[in-house]
Amino acid sequence: MLQGELISHGIGDTIFTRSRNLEQLLGYSNIYLKFEGGNPTGTMKDRAAYACLRVAKESGYSEVVIASCGNFGASFVTLARIFGIKAHVYIPEKYHTPRIAEMEQLGGIIHRAPGTYEEVVVSSGEEAGRRGWYNGNPGTPENKAASIEAYATISYEIVDRMGHAPDTVAVPTSNGTTLAGINHGFQTLRKEGKTEKAPAIIAASTTGGNPIVSSFLAGKRKIVNLKSDGIDETSINEPLVNWMSLDGQDALDAVWESKGWAVNITDEEMSEYSEILQREEGLSVMPASCASVAALPYYVKEKKQKKGRDFVAFLTARNF
């Protein structure tokens, strides 16, 4: 039911295309792109924002809080109007997202808060509790369930277009919610007999800045958070940086369950693939979103599997 709801509001059913130009550049066939830039605010966040706002509305709330570095806040502010809900967006003081003016124009109430993104998630959630607002942040049981259901629709759309599940899906990874949802969708389709297999899921993130990737590469089944002061944050990797992925354990479990993999991607590689996609496919993709494409050559080299395989790179957001 959620998939139909999302589509009725212009969310989902996004671009899915085979990239023959990338196939020639990388030297292997069957590379597909799933690009979320066509969603109302240009990112996959619209899927989860809608689902969480629906929970807030059904629970009787008229105001919602979300901590954001930009994109998630824009989604909540834009989609909150569907439900008649007022959106408060808490943005870390050191972040200077260009989407603040956009959120304010759409009626969002902006709060600047001290601390890292992860710390602002906690402080904004506490503020929501004091004021009687709905806490829309990742990490709560309600939002996790709603978001994973929402991101599972990505898998349904891929199978609808391909007629089967691909062999591999690479996902840019931050909090881990999107990756966990995509894996959940494929696993659900497999269990229901709607596809014979579930793909290997690749977690692709910024070098040294994501505990899902670092934990997997260390062979760990339980996630180990990073030190908050040990991460090099840049304008390129900002959407992927996390020292404490809020749904990280779910994502790490998904990578292991799917017999997947994880890889670190540099800023230079993300920027390079963003330029390649613009030039070769006419897609304006945020560099951090291109971590998924950059991950594919590493995966093929590691696993030595490219003939007769289907590869999907999930592209989370357009350039802003």
Features of the shown structure:
single chain, 320 residues, alpha/beta, Rossmann fold, 2 domains, six-stranded mixed β-sheet, four-stranded parallel β-sheet, 12 helices, 10 strands, 45% helix, globular
Low-pLDDT residue intervals, each spanning 5 or more residues: none
H/E element string?
HEHEHEHEHEHEHEHEHHEHHE
How many distinct beta strands?
A: 10
Spatial order of strands in the largest sheet: 1-2-10-7-8-9
Main pleated sheet: 6 strands, mixed
* Helicity level: 40-55%
What overall geometry do the principal axes of the alpha carbons give?
A: globular
Instruction: Provide the CATH topology of the largest domain.
Output: Rossmann fold
Compute the number of helices. 12
Question: Could you please describe the fold and organization of this structure?
Answer:
With 320 residues, this protein is α/β, with parallel strands linked by helices. It has two domains: 2-43 and 142-315, Rossmann fold (3-Layer(aba) Sandwich); 45-140, Rossmann fold, CATH 3.40.50. Helices cover 45% and strands 16% of the residues. It is built from twelve helices and ten strands. It has a six-stranded mixed beta sheet, with helices on both faces.
